[in-house]
Amino acid sequence: MVDQSNNKTGDAPTETGGDATEVGNTEPAGQGTVTGAATSTGFDRAAEMAREAQSQQGRLLNGRFVLEDILGRGGMGLVYKAQDLRKVEAEDRNPYIAVKVLGQQFSQHPRAFVSLQQEAVKSQKLAHPNIVTVHDFDREGDTIYMTMELLKGDPLDALLKLEAPFSKEVAFRYFRDLCSGLEYAHKRDLVHSDFKPGNIFVTTGGTVKILDFGIARAANKNALSHEFDAGELGALTPAYATVEMVRGEPPRFSDDIYALACVLYVMLTGEHPFQRKSAAEARELGLKPARPEGLNNQEWQVLAAALSFDPAKRPATIAAFRDALIPPRKGSAKAAIAAVVVLALVAGGGIGWQQYRAGQAQQETIQSRLKAAQDCFFSGDFACASENALVARNLAPDNPEAERLLSAARKEQAERQAVAQVEGRLQEARDCLDAGDFACARVKAREVLALQAGEPRAEALLERAERGSRQLQIDGIVARAEACLGEGDLECALESADEAEAAGASSADLYPLRQQVEQRQAQLQAEQAALQEQVAALQQEAEDCLQASRFDCVVERADALLALDAGNTRAVELKQASASALAQAQMNQRTADTLLDAARDCLAARNYSCTIAKSESALAIVPGYGPARELVQQAESAQSAAKRKISIE
Prior knowledge:
Blueprint: E1 2-3, H1 40-54, E2 60-61, E3 65-74, E4 77-84, H2 85-89, E5 96-102, H3 104-108, H4 110-124, E6 134-140, E7 143-148, E8 151-155, H5 156-163, H6 168-186, E9 200-203, E10 208-210, H7 215-222, H8 243-246, H9 253-269, H10 279-285, H11 297-306, H12 318-325, H13 332-346, H14 351-378, H15 382-395, H16 400-434, H17 438-451, H18 456-486, H19 490-502, H20 507-547, H21 551-564, H22 569-604, H23 608-621, H24 626-645
Parallel strand pairs: 1-8
Antiparallel strand pairs: 2-3, 3-4, 4-5, 5-7, 6-7, 8-9, 9-10
Helix pairs in contact: 4-7, 6-9, 6-12, 13-14, 14-15, 14-16, 15-16, 16-17, 16-18, 17-18, 18-19, 18-20, 19-20, 20-21, 20-22, 21-22, 22-23, 22-24, 23-24
């Protein structure tokens, strides 16, 4: 919402009731706003900014807003200076906005969030030169934010710390601007509820802006709920709170009138009327404000009434407060007629003479202010020159000398501020470089170039930031390559080395890394060859064992093979073949044993042919089976002996 980074507190204020102040940081002429479709240059620039922001967590909001500097902190959240990428795409000369990122209290309390959303919609409809413009209200996940115009200048509380008390003319001029903004909001049934110097901003042009309409009201509405602590959000500032607000009563217009009176008192005196205590506490202590110097009896009575603890005694409206304190000025035509009447009455004395003397006093004030403005101008104090010339111009709108002095002082002041802004951004860029924050340095250097195209120091800083950023990127890629190498992921290491070279790393810098990768590749190849040789040997031994029906040997060699190469399918096949062969051999053995039992029965019955036949069948099933061969031999021997005993008659 505010850009204070390069603005001197106490800049010259603008005339009361003037046009809306300039907002944002405008880029130099020559980069005209593009109407219609955005150019490819704008799209490319926006895409580049989005990529850079995405690489830094939390900088890109909703894919559109690039958060840059933190401009302020408060109980309700942070205010950032940001670039709207839609404006960047359109090559808008003023792509800057303010983004207020609200605290987690709103996202954690649904009722508060809904209330805030309703109030933000109302705030968007407040189009007034003395109220900051709210563009939008949105959220990304748990992040709730509002976008609004970016202002250049200083918050009133900062100005008060440096310059209070203000002159009566300045205080009343700020007061009129504040009345104008509050009156506009009140006519639309909106109460601020947290009106204080911290929510008032004075632009470099001197226009006063009221901040945070709607946010404080949303928090206060939820303060009545036990589920929501508005105090955590800073939604109620005791020093500017009425008795009614402290009691938790619904917001009313008189709350803002009391707070405005407190603000005016601080501007006039530099002190709070009740020692920064709430109205409830001040009433209990019996505190009474002292009359500010410079106020006449009527003015003090009006201000004291607005400071009353009793709402019934305060002015009924903002307009009533303003008009009672500063009676409206008559129009120019009426003033001309009044001047004729004054001249006519001078001769008659009495009241006419007093009015004539008042006119003479005003002329003396104008001349005194013009003399002060000239002295300030030639001494180089352009803020002083601007303020005095402004007072003279307001008293005499047609005075050419006042207009000339005011214009010249503002021009010199603007040029001085532009130089200070450039120097400040350059120093910030240097500080960012010293801290190793290259993204920050790039942003600051580009801001300088946007203010002053071709500024050589900014271009040099930008180049250093670009080099540093590239080197940081290269160092990160090389570190990743080394990590991959340590984990044995050579493909990742080579890909990372190629990426580093594409990013700008020299071949010489990458040579040690590539050499380590090549050495590791050679080592792995040798280890792989040895492994393959060992695998082949074990596989051949398993094959030989299977051929010899040495099933235990087959299993042993296959298991050793799988320990080296878990995916070796031949080892699995060999184990399966061994198991199958073993089962078949066991079944053949049982069949052969059955046949041998039958052969023994035949032998016992001296049926030698049967014995031989059964034994030979067993041998056919289990070749070389010893018991079967023995039975064949026994049967053949017995059969031969029997044949010898047979005699032929």
